[in-house]
Amino acid sequence: MIKAPWTKEQVENLNRFQKFEYTHPFTCGNNGCGDELVAHEEGWKCPSCDYTQDWAHEHMTLFTKEIDEQYRTKDPLQGD
Ligand SMILES: [Zn+2]
Questions:
Q1: Is 28 buried (19+), middle (13-18) or exposed (0-12) by CB count in 10 A?
Q2: Which is higher by pLDDT, 48 or 71?
């Protein structure tokens, strides 16, 4: 687990991971909200309320464009 603040690159990777179709994104922990969190250099923020979160899993911060593209070009039914 890795705590904010994050670098610009880490923030980009985190937000890319949020859009990754094979995992469930981080969502707001406030009751009745549940919106998808958005990463900023100072931590996660909910776009709909004042909820914040200051940690992420390390692998999420390593989710580069290259890795994302590898998944996109691979047929998930065929495996490796
Ligand atoms: Zn919220």
A1: buried
A2: 48
Domains held by the chain: number: 1
- As residues whose CB is below 5 A from the ion ligand 1, the structure lists 28, 30, 33, 35, 46, 48-49, 51
Q: Give distance in angstroms: CA of 5 to centre of ligand 1.
A: 20
Domain with 15 in it: 2-73
- Write down the pTM of the prediction: 0.87
Distance 30 CA to ligand 1 centre (A): 6
Tell me how far apart the terminal alpha carbons of the chain are, to the nearest angstrom. 28
Instruction: Taking residues 29-38, report their average pLDDT.
Output: 96
Residue 79 lies in a domain: no
